[in-house]
Amino acid sequence: MTSGTSEISSLSAFADCPPVAEAVDTIVRELVEARSLITGVRRPAPELAASYEAHLARQTQIKGRPPVYPYVGCGLGHGPLVQLADGSVKWDMISGIGVHAFGHSDPDLVATALRAALSDTVMQGNLQFNTEAIEFAELLLAEAARTSRLEHCFVINSGALANESALKLCYQHNAPADRVLAFAHGFAGRTTTLAQITDSSAGRVGIPLTVPVDYVPFYDPEHGDDSIKETLNGLQQVIDRYPGRHACFVMELVQGEGGFNVAPREFFVPLMELCRDNGIAVWVDEIQTFGRTCEMFYFEQLGVGDYVDVVTVGKLSQACACLYTAQYNPKPGLLSATFVGSTVALHVGRRILARLREGGYYGPDGRIARLQTAFRKHMQALIEQHPDWFGPVPQADGRSTQRVYDGVGGMMRLTPFGGDRSKITKALHVMFDEGVIAFYCGHEPYHIRFLPPVGVMQPQQFDEVFEIMEAALARAAQSD
Prior knowledge:
Layout: H1 11-16, H2 18-35, H3 49-63, E1 73-78, E2 81-84, E3 89-92, H4 95-98, H5 107-116, E4 123-124, H6 131-145, E5 150-156, H7 159-173, E6 179-183, H8 192-197, E7 213-216, H9 224-241, E8 246-251, E9 254-255, E10 261-262, H10 265-277, E11 281-286, H11 298-302, E12 310-313, E13 320-325, E14 341-342, H12 343-358, H13 367-385, E15 393-394, E16 400-401, E17 405-408, E18 411-414, H14 421-434, E19 436-437, E20 439-442, E21 446-450, H15 462-478
Parallel strand pairs: 3-19, 6-7, 6-8, 8-11, 11-12
Antiparallel strand pairs: 1-2, 2-3, 4-14, 5-13, 9-10, 12-13, 15-16, 17-18, 18-21, 20-21
Protein backbone atom coordinates (compact mmCIF):
# COMPACT_ATOMS: atom_id res chain seq x y z
CA MET A 1 0.00 0.00 0.00
CA THR A 2 1.44 3.38 -0.99
CA SER A 3 -0.49 5.39 1.60
CA GLY A 4 0.73 5.50 5.17
CA THR A 5 -1.58 4.21 7.88
CA SER A 6 -1.81 7.68 9.40
CA GLU A 7 -3.63 8.83 6.27
CA ILE A 8 -6.29 6.11 6.42
CA SER A 9 -9.03 7.59 8.57
CA SER A 10 -12.15 5.97 7.11
CA LEU A 11 -13.36 3.21 4.83
CA SER A 12 -13.81 5.65 1.95
CA ALA A 13 -10.22 6.84 2.30
CA PHE A 14 -9.03 3.23 2.34
CA ALA A 15 -11.22 2.23 -0.63
CA ASP A 16 -10.00 5.24 -2.62
CA CYS A 17 -6.31 4.68 -2.04
CA PRO A 18 -4.62 3.85 -5.38
CA PRO A 19 -3.97 0.10 -4.96
CA VAL A 20 -7.49 -0.64 -3.73
CA ALA A 21 -9.19 1.64 -6.26
CA GLU A 22 -7.19 0.03 -9.06
CA ALA A 23 -8.16 -3.46 -7.88
CA VAL A 24 -11.85 -2.53 -7.80
CA ASP A 25 -11.60 -0.96 -11.26
CA THR A 26 -9.94 -4.11 -12.60
CA ILE A 27 -12.71 -6.34 -11.23
CA VAL A 28 -15.40 -4.10 -12.67
CA ARG A 29 -13.73 -4.01 -16.10
CA GLU A 30 -13.66 -7.81 -16.11
CA LEU A 31 -17.31 -7.87 -15.07
CA VAL A 32 -18.30 -5.54 -17.91
CA GLU A 33 -16.51 -7.77 -20.40
CA ALA A 34 -18.10 -10.93 -18.99
CA ARG A 35 -21.62 -9.54 -19.00
CA SER A 36 -21.21 -8.20 -22.56
CA LEU A 37 -21.61 -11.80 -23.75
CA ILE A 38 -25.15 -11.83 -22.33
CA THR A 39 -27.16 -10.16 -25.08
CA GLY A 40 -30.46 -12.03 -25.26
CA VAL A 41 -32.48 -15.09 -24.35
CA ARG A 42 -30.54 -18.34 -24.50
CA ARG A 43 -31.59 -21.97 -24.11
CA PRO A 44 -30.07 -24.20 -21.40
CA ALA A 45 -26.77 -25.89 -22.19
CA PRO A 46 -27.29 -29.69 -22.39
CA GLU A 47 -23.96 -30.40 -20.68
CA LEU A 48 -25.15 -28.51 -17.57
CA ALA A 49 -28.48 -30.33 -17.24
CA ALA A 50 -27.33 -32.96 -14.73
CA SER A 51 -25.64 -30.53 -12.37
CA TYR A 52 -28.62 -28.17 -12.59
CA GLU A 53 -31.06 -30.91 -11.66
CA ALA A 54 -28.79 -31.75 -8.72
CA HIS A 55 -29.00 -28.14 -7.51
CA LEU A 56 -32.78 -28.23 -7.69
CA ALA A 57 -32.95 -31.58 -5.91
CA ARG A 58 -30.81 -30.23 -3.08
CA GLN A 59 -33.05 -27.17 -2.73
CA THR A 60 -36.16 -29.35 -2.71
CA GLN A 61 -34.66 -31.52 0.03
CA ILE A 62 -33.68 -28.48 2.10
CA LYS A 63 -37.09 -26.81 1.98
CA GLY A 64 -39.25 -29.91 1.88
CA ARG A 65 -40.95 -28.89 -1.38
CA PRO A 66 -39.82 -27.96 -4.89
CA PRO A 67 -39.22 -24.29 -5.72
CA VAL A 68 -41.93 -22.35 -7.56
CA TYR A 69 -39.69 -22.14 -10.63
CA PRO A 70 -36.63 -24.24 -11.48
CA TYR A 71 -34.49 -21.12 -10.92
CA VAL A 72 -30.88 -21.28 -9.79
CA GLY A 73 -28.88 -18.22 -10.76
CA CYS A 74 -25.23 -18.42 -11.72
CA GLY A 75 -24.44 -14.98 -10.26
CA LEU A 76 -24.10 -13.17 -13.57
CA GLY A 77 -26.44 -11.12 -15.73
CA HIS A 78 -26.73 -8.00 -17.83
CA GLY A 79 -29.35 -5.51 -16.68
CA PRO A 80 -32.81 -7.06 -17.22
CA LEU A 81 -31.21 -10.31 -18.42
CA VAL A 82 -30.15 -12.99 -15.95
CA GLN A 83 -28.12 -16.12 -16.60
CA LEU A 84 -28.99 -19.29 -14.74
CA ALA A 85 -26.70 -22.10 -13.67
CA ASP A 86 -27.94 -24.25 -16.56
CA GLY A 87 -26.53 -21.72 -19.03
CA SER A 88 -29.91 -20.28 -20.01
CA VAL A 89 -30.56 -16.52 -20.14
CA LYS A 90 -33.96 -15.02 -19.35
CA TRP A 91 -35.65 -11.62 -19.13
CA ASP A 92 -36.15 -10.89 -15.43
CA MET A 93 -39.53 -9.17 -15.16
CA ILE A 94 -40.02 -9.81 -11.44
CA SER A 95 -36.58 -8.72 -10.14
CA GLY A 96 -36.74 -10.50 -6.81
CA ILE A 97 -40.36 -9.29 -6.38
CA GLY A 98 -39.14 -5.74 -6.73
CA VAL A 99 -35.76 -5.91 -5.00
CA HIS A 100 -33.34 -5.73 -7.93
CA ALA A 101 -34.15 -2.29 -9.34
CA PHE A 102 -30.95 -2.16 -11.39
CA GLY A 103 -31.12 -5.72 -12.59
CA HIS A 104 -28.11 -8.00 -12.65
CA SER A 105 -24.36 -7.31 -12.62
CA ASP A 106 -24.71 -3.53 -12.56
CA PRO A 107 -21.09 -2.28 -12.67
CA ASP A 108 -21.70 0.75 -10.46
CA LEU A 109 -23.49 -1.24 -7.76
CA VAL A 110 -20.91 -4.03 -7.89
CA ALA A 111 -18.16 -1.44 -7.39
CA THR A 112 -20.14 0.02 -4.48
CA ALA A 113 -20.56 -3.44 -2.96
CA LEU A 114 -16.85 -4.25 -3.37
CA ARG A 115 -15.85 -1.12 -1.52
CA ALA A 116 -18.44 -1.80 1.18
CA ALA A 117 -17.11 -5.37 1.59
CA LEU A 118 -13.83 -3.86 2.78
CA SER A 119 -15.58 -2.51 5.88
CA ASP A 120 -14.71 -3.70 9.37
CA THR A 121 -17.98 -5.63 9.83
CA VAL A 122 -20.39 -7.55 7.65
CA MET A 123 -23.46 -6.40 9.61
CA GLN A 124 -24.37 -3.17 11.33
CA GLY A 125 -26.73 -2.85 14.25
CA ASN A 126 -28.65 -0.48 16.46
CA LEU A 127 -25.95 -0.53 19.12
CA GLN A 128 -22.95 -0.27 16.80
CA PHE A 129 -23.29 1.30 13.37
CA ASN A 130 -21.13 3.18 10.89
CA THR A 131 -21.67 6.43 9.02
CA GLU A 132 -23.48 4.84 6.08
CA ALA A 133 -26.37 3.77 8.33
CA ILE A 134 -26.85 7.42 9.25
CA GLU A 135 -26.49 8.61 5.67
CA PHE A 136 -28.94 6.01 4.35
CA ALA A 137 -31.62 7.12 6.82
CA GLU A 138 -30.91 10.79 6.18
CA LEU A 139 -31.38 10.35 2.44
CA LEU A 140 -34.72 8.60 2.98
CA LEU A 141 -35.92 11.30 5.33
CA ALA A 142 -34.78 14.14 3.09
CA GLU A 143 -36.89 12.75 0.27
CA ALA A 144 -39.89 11.96 2.49
CA ALA A 145 -39.89 15.27 4.36
CA ARG A 146 -40.30 17.31 1.18
CA THR A 147 -44.02 16.53 1.09
CA SER A 148 -44.84 15.07 4.52
CA ARG A 149 -44.44 15.55 8.27
CA LEU A 150 -42.09 12.57 8.62
CA GLU A 151 -39.07 13.39 10.79
CA HIS A 152 -37.58 10.15 12.09
CA CYS A 153 -36.37 6.86 10.64
CA PHE A 154 -35.73 3.41 12.12
CA VAL A 155 -33.66 1.22 9.79
CA ILE A 156 -34.14 -2.54 9.94
CA ASN A 157 -33.17 -5.51 7.79
CA SER A 158 -36.50 -6.71 6.39
CA GLY A 159 -39.80 -5.32 5.21
CA ALA A 160 -41.74 -7.47 7.67
CA LEU A 161 -39.72 -6.09 10.59
CA ALA A 162 -40.27 -2.56 9.30
CA ASN A 163 -44.01 -3.27 9.36
CA GLU A 164 -43.79 -4.84 12.81
CA SER A 165 -42.02 -1.67 13.99
CA ALA A 166 -44.75 0.50 12.48
CA LEU A 167 -47.43 -1.51 14.24
CA LYS A 168 -45.64 -1.13 17.57
CA LEU A 169 -45.45 2.64 17.12
CA CYS A 170 -49.18 2.81 16.43
CA TYR A 171 -50.09 0.58 19.36
CA GLN A 172 -47.96 2.52 21.82
CA HIS A 173 -49.08 5.97 20.73
CA ASN A 174 -52.76 5.04 20.68
CA ALA A 175 -52.83 2.67 23.68
CA PRO A 176 -54.99 1.00 24.80
CA ALA A 177 -56.41 0.71 21.26
CA ASP A 178 -55.93 -2.88 20.13
CA ARG A 179 -57.63 -3.19 16.73
CA VAL A 180 -56.16 -2.76 13.24
CA LEU A 181 -57.88 -1.51 10.09
CA ALA A 182 -56.82 -2.80 6.68
CA PHE A 183 -58.07 -3.10 3.13
CA ALA A 184 -59.63 -6.29 1.84
CA HIS A 185 -57.08 -8.26 -0.22
CA GLY A 186 -54.23 -6.32 1.41
CA PHE A 187 -50.83 -7.79 2.24
CA ALA A 188 -48.70 -6.80 5.25
CA GLY A 189 -46.10 -9.55 5.62
CA ARG A 190 -45.52 -13.10 6.80
CA THR A 191 -44.69 -12.87 10.50
CA THR A 192 -47.24 -14.34 12.89
CA THR A 193 -48.79 -10.91 13.49
CA LEU A 194 -48.62 -9.62 9.93
CA ALA A 195 -50.09 -12.82 8.53
CA GLN A 196 -53.19 -12.05 10.59
CA ILE A 197 -53.44 -8.53 9.14
CA THR A 198 -52.90 -9.82 5.60
CA ASP A 199 -56.22 -10.71 4.00
CA SER A 200 -55.27 -14.20 2.90
CA SER A 201 -56.58 -17.28 4.68
CA ALA A 202 -53.86 -19.47 3.12
CA GLY A 203 -51.16 -17.42 4.85
CA ARG A 204 -52.46 -18.06 8.34
CA VAL A 205 -53.61 -21.68 8.33
CA GLY A 206 -53.08 -23.06 11.83
CA ILE A 207 -52.01 -19.70 13.29
CA PRO A 208 -53.90 -18.60 16.43
CA LEU A 209 -55.76 -15.37 15.74
CA THR A 210 -54.68 -12.86 18.38
CA VAL A 211 -54.90 -9.56 16.43
CA PRO A 212 -58.41 -8.17 15.83
CA VAL A 213 -58.52 -6.81 12.26
CA ASP A 214 -61.37 -5.02 10.50
CA TYR A 215 -61.34 -4.91 6.69
CA VAL A 216 -62.93 -2.36 4.38
CA PRO A 217 -63.09 -2.72 0.60
CA PHE A 218 -60.42 -1.27 -1.64
CA TYR A 219 -61.30 1.01 -4.52
CA ASP A 220 -63.28 -0.46 -7.40
CA PRO A 221 -62.65 1.56 -10.59
CA GLU A 222 -65.77 0.12 -12.18
CA HIS A 223 -67.90 1.95 -9.62
CA GLY A 224 -65.89 5.13 -9.03
CA ASP A 225 -67.62 7.51 -6.63
CA ASP A 226 -69.96 4.79 -5.40
CA SER A 227 -66.92 2.73 -4.44
CA ILE A 228 -65.49 5.65 -2.46
CA LYS A 229 -68.80 6.09 -0.60
CA GLU A 230 -69.04 2.35 0.11
CA THR A 231 -65.58 2.20 1.67
CA LEU A 232 -66.04 5.42 3.63
CA ASN A 233 -69.38 4.22 5.00
CA GLY A 234 -67.86 0.86 5.87
CA LEU A 235 -65.00 2.55 7.73
CA GLN A 236 -67.42 4.75 9.68
CA GLN A 237 -69.50 1.73 10.66
CA VAL A 238 -66.48 -0.14 11.99
CA ILE A 239 -65.26 2.91 13.93
CA ASP A 240 -68.73 3.31 15.43
CA ARG A 241 -68.83 -0.37 16.33
CA TYR A 242 -65.51 -0.21 18.18
CA PRO A 243 -65.09 3.43 19.32
CA GLY A 244 -61.56 4.27 20.42
CA ARG A 245 -60.33 0.76 19.73
CA HIS A 246 -58.43 1.20 16.43
CA ALA A 247 -54.70 1.91 16.70
CA CYS A 248 -54.06 2.31 12.98
CA PHE A 249 -55.21 1.86 9.41
CA VAL A 250 -52.50 0.16 7.34
CA MET A 251 -52.88 1.27 3.72
CA GLU A 252 -51.17 -0.06 0.64
CA LEU A 253 -51.67 2.83 -1.78
CA VAL A 254 -51.20 0.27 -4.55
CA GLN A 255 -52.14 -3.24 -3.53
CA GLY A 256 -49.23 -5.49 -4.41
CA GLU A 257 -49.94 -9.14 -3.68
CA GLY A 258 -53.65 -8.33 -3.83
CA GLY A 259 -53.53 -7.70 -7.57
CA PHE A 260 -51.72 -4.42 -8.33
CA ASN A 261 -54.95 -2.58 -7.61
CA VAL A 262 -54.73 1.22 -7.85
CA ALA A 263 -56.91 4.04 -6.53
CA PRO A 264 -57.05 7.82 -7.01
CA ARG A 265 -56.29 10.49 -4.42
CA GLU A 266 -60.02 11.10 -4.03
CA PHE A 267 -60.37 7.62 -2.56
CA PHE A 268 -57.72 7.97 0.13
CA VAL A 269 -58.22 11.53 1.35
CA PRO A 270 -61.66 11.09 3.02
CA LEU A 271 -60.48 7.85 4.62
CA MET A 272 -57.38 9.53 5.99
CA GLU A 273 -59.37 12.51 7.22
CA LEU A 274 -61.79 10.21 9.03
CA CYS A 275 -58.86 8.40 10.65
CA ARG A 276 -57.31 11.69 11.74
CA ASP A 277 -60.62 12.87 13.22
CA ASN A 278 -60.80 9.67 15.27
CA GLY A 279 -57.18 9.52 16.43
CA ILE A 280 -56.34 6.53 14.22
CA ALA A 281 -52.81 6.41 12.84
CA VAL A 282 -52.47 6.51 9.05
CA TRP A 283 -49.76 3.96 8.29
CA VAL A 284 -48.78 3.76 4.61
CA ASP A 285 -47.07 0.52 3.59
CA GLU A 286 -44.75 1.28 0.65
CA ILE A 287 -42.62 -1.84 0.91
CA GLN A 288 -43.40 -2.74 -2.70
CA THR A 289 -44.29 0.66 -4.17
CA PHE A 290 -41.28 2.56 -2.82
CA GLY A 291 -39.09 3.89 -5.61
CA ARG A 292 -41.09 2.19 -8.36
CA THR A 293 -43.77 4.80 -9.11
CA CYS A 294 -43.50 8.24 -10.69
CA GLU A 295 -42.20 9.71 -7.43
CA MET A 296 -39.87 8.04 -4.97
CA PHE A 297 -42.74 7.82 -2.46
CA TYR A 298 -46.15 7.09 -3.89
CA PHE A 299 -47.79 9.16 -1.16
CA GLU A 300 -46.04 12.12 -2.77
CA GLN A 301 -47.42 11.26 -6.20
CA LEU A 302 -50.92 11.15 -4.70
CA GLY A 303 -50.38 14.32 -2.70
CA VAL A 304 -51.41 12.80 0.66
CA GLY A 305 -48.17 13.26 2.58
CA ASP A 306 -49.69 15.63 5.12
CA TYR A 307 -52.04 12.89 6.33
CA VAL A 308 -49.37 10.24 6.84
CA ASP A 309 -48.16 9.34 10.36
CA VAL A 310 -46.02 6.28 9.61
CA VAL A 311 -44.50 4.93 6.39
CA THR A 312 -42.64 1.70 5.76
CA VAL A 313 -40.28 1.11 2.84
CA GLY A 314 -38.16 -1.77 1.60
CA LYS A 315 -37.28 -4.13 -1.25
CA LEU A 316 -35.78 -1.70 -3.79
CA SER A 317 -33.92 0.15 -1.00
CA GLN A 318 -32.02 -3.03 0.04
CA ALA A 319 -32.13 -2.07 3.73
CA CYS A 320 -35.67 -1.43 4.99
CA ALA A 321 -37.05 1.29 7.21
CA CYS A 322 -39.95 2.66 9.22
CA LEU A 323 -40.37 6.45 8.97
CA TYR A 324 -42.60 8.38 11.38
CA THR A 325 -43.61 11.84 12.53
CA ALA A 326 -42.39 13.52 15.72
CA GLN A 327 -45.81 12.80 17.22
CA TYR A 328 -45.19 9.05 16.85
CA ASN A 329 -41.61 9.09 18.14
CA PRO A 330 -41.70 6.14 20.59
CA LYS A 331 -40.57 5.83 24.17
CA PRO A 332 -37.09 4.31 24.75
CA GLY A 333 -36.93 0.57 24.36
CA LEU A 334 -39.80 0.07 21.92
CA LEU A 335 -37.79 -0.06 18.69
CA SER A 336 -34.55 -1.98 18.54
CA ALA A 337 -32.97 -4.98 16.86
CA THR A 338 -29.56 -6.59 16.59
CA PHE A 339 -29.23 -5.67 12.91
CA VAL A 340 -30.15 -2.64 10.86
CA GLY A 341 -28.74 -4.37 7.79
CA SER A 342 -25.56 -5.54 6.14
CA THR A 343 -22.86 -3.01 5.37
CA VAL A 344 -23.12 -3.88 1.68
CA ALA A 345 -26.92 -3.40 1.71
CA LEU A 346 -26.60 0.02 3.34
CA HIS A 347 -23.94 1.20 0.88
CA VAL A 348 -25.73 -0.19 -2.16
CA GLY A 349 -29.12 1.02 -0.96
CA ARG A 350 -27.80 4.53 -0.48
CA ARG A 351 -26.28 4.45 -3.96
CA ILE A 352 -29.54 3.19 -5.51
CA LEU A 353 -31.50 6.01 -3.90
CA ALA A 354 -28.99 8.59 -5.11
CA ARG A 355 -29.07 7.25 -8.67
CA LEU A 356 -32.85 7.21 -8.75
CA ARG A 357 -33.07 10.71 -7.35
CA GLU A 358 -30.56 12.15 -9.80
CA GLY A 359 -31.12 10.04 -12.93
CA GLY A 360 -34.33 11.40 -14.41
CA TYR A 361 -36.49 8.52 -13.23
CA TYR A 362 -39.35 10.45 -11.67
CA GLY A 363 -42.07 12.81 -12.82
CA PRO A 364 -44.76 12.38 -15.49
CA ASP A 365 -42.12 12.19 -18.24
CA GLY A 366 -39.50 10.28 -16.24
CA ARG A 367 -37.96 6.95 -17.13
CA ILE A 368 -40.33 4.99 -14.89
CA ALA A 369 -43.42 6.65 -16.39
CA ARG A 370 -42.13 5.82 -19.87
CA LEU A 371 -41.89 2.14 -18.92
CA GLN A 372 -45.54 2.13 -17.88
CA THR A 373 -46.48 3.84 -21.16
CA ALA A 374 -44.58 1.21 -23.16
CA PHE A 375 -46.23 -1.61 -21.21
CA ARG A 376 -49.70 -0.21 -21.90
CA LYS A 377 -48.92 0.24 -25.60
CA HIS A 378 -47.84 -3.38 -25.91
CA MET A 379 -50.87 -4.55 -23.95
CA GLN A 380 -53.28 -2.69 -26.22
CA ALA A 381 -51.65 -4.30 -29.27
CA LEU A 382 -51.80 -7.75 -27.68
CA ILE A 383 -55.50 -7.35 -26.87
CA GLU A 384 -56.27 -6.23 -30.42
CA GLN A 385 -54.51 -9.30 -31.81
CA HIS A 386 -56.02 -11.77 -29.33
CA PRO A 387 -59.30 -10.41 -27.94
CA ASP A 388 -60.42 -13.93 -27.07
CA TRP A 389 -57.70 -14.12 -24.40
CA PHE A 390 -58.88 -10.97 -22.66
CA GLY A 391 -62.57 -11.27 -21.94
CA PRO A 392 -64.42 -9.92 -18.89
CA VAL A 393 -62.78 -10.71 -15.56
CA PRO A 394 -65.17 -12.08 -12.89
CA GLN A 395 -64.94 -10.42 -9.47
CA ALA A 396 -65.52 -11.95 -6.06
CA ASP A 397 -68.80 -10.06 -5.62
CA GLY A 398 -70.27 -11.61 -8.76
CA ARG A 399 -69.66 -8.59 -10.96
CA SER A 400 -67.08 -8.43 -13.74
CA THR A 401 -64.64 -5.90 -15.11
CA GLN A 402 -63.20 -5.12 -18.52
CA ARG A 403 -59.94 -3.83 -16.99
CA VAL A 404 -57.58 -6.55 -18.16
CA TYR A 405 -54.38 -4.64 -17.43
CA ASP A 406 -53.42 -1.99 -14.93
CA GLY A 407 -50.69 -0.69 -12.69
CA VAL A 408 -48.63 2.40 -12.08
CA GLY A 409 -44.99 3.23 -12.82
CA GLY A 410 -42.86 0.10 -12.61
CA MET A 411 -45.76 -2.00 -11.26
CA MET A 412 -47.63 -3.75 -14.08
CA ARG A 413 -50.18 -6.50 -14.35
CA LEU A 414 -52.32 -8.19 -16.99
CA THR A 415 -55.31 -10.49 -16.62
CA PRO A 416 -55.74 -13.04 -19.40
CA PHE A 417 -58.26 -15.88 -19.42
CA GLY A 418 -60.62 -14.13 -17.01
CA GLY A 419 -58.07 -14.50 -14.21
CA ASP A 420 -58.24 -18.30 -14.30
CA ARG A 421 -55.56 -19.60 -11.96
CA SER A 422 -54.71 -22.79 -13.84
CA LYS A 423 -54.22 -21.09 -17.20
CA ILE A 424 -52.24 -18.22 -15.71
CA THR A 425 -50.00 -20.66 -13.86
CA LYS A 426 -49.52 -22.59 -17.09
CA ALA A 427 -48.66 -19.39 -18.97
CA LEU A 428 -46.14 -18.33 -16.32
CA HIS A 429 -44.29 -21.64 -16.47
CA VAL A 430 -44.22 -21.59 -20.26
CA MET A 431 -42.93 -18.01 -20.13
CA PHE A 432 -40.20 -19.13 -17.76
CA ASP A 433 -39.17 -21.99 -20.03
CA GLU A 434 -39.13 -19.69 -23.06
CA GLY A 435 -37.16 -16.90 -21.40
CA VAL A 436 -39.35 -14.49 -19.36
CA ILE A 437 -39.59 -14.60 -15.57
CA ALA A 438 -42.79 -13.10 -14.17
CA PHE A 439 -45.08 -13.98 -11.28
CA TYR A 440 -48.73 -13.85 -10.30
CA CYS A 441 -50.66 -11.64 -7.92
CA GLY A 442 -54.24 -11.44 -6.71
CA HIS A 443 -56.56 -14.34 -6.02
CA GLU A 444 -59.85 -15.02 -7.73
CA PRO A 445 -59.07 -13.42 -10.12
CA TYR A 446 -55.36 -14.06 -10.60
CA HIS A 447 -53.09 -11.80 -12.66
CA ILE A 448 -49.66 -11.93 -14.28
CA ARG A 449 -47.38 -9.49 -12.51
CA PHE A 450 -44.38 -7.57 -13.84
CA LEU A 451 -41.88 -5.76 -11.62
CA PRO A 452 -39.17 -5.03 -14.19
CA PRO A 453 -35.82 -3.59 -13.08
CA VAL A 454 -36.79 0.07 -13.46
CA GLY A 455 -33.23 1.31 -13.12
CA VAL A 456 -32.04 -0.33 -16.33
CA MET A 457 -35.06 -1.54 -18.31
CA GLN A 458 -35.56 0.23 -21.63
CA PRO A 459 -39.03 0.60 -23.20
CA GLN A 460 -37.94 -1.10 -26.44
CA GLN A 461 -36.91 -4.21 -24.50
CA PHE A 462 -40.59 -4.97 -23.99
CA ASP A 463 -40.67 -5.96 -27.68
CA GLU A 464 -38.99 -9.32 -27.08
CA VAL A 465 -40.64 -9.80 -23.68
CA PHE A 466 -44.10 -9.48 -25.22
CA GLU A 467 -43.19 -11.68 -28.17
CA ILE A 468 -42.27 -14.48 -25.78
CA MET A 469 -45.29 -13.85 -23.59
CA GLU A 470 -47.63 -13.94 -26.58
CA ALA A 471 -46.36 -17.40 -27.54
CA ALA A 472 -46.73 -18.58 -23.94
CA LEU A 473 -50.30 -17.29 -23.70
CA ALA A 474 -51.12 -19.06 -26.95
CA ARG A 475 -49.97 -22.37 -25.49
CA ALA A 476 -51.85 -21.74 -22.26
CA ALA A 477 -55.01 -20.88 -24.20
CA GLN A 478 -54.88 -24.31 -25.85
CA SER A 479 -54.55 -26.16 -22.54
CA ASP A 480 -57.54 -27.66 -20.74
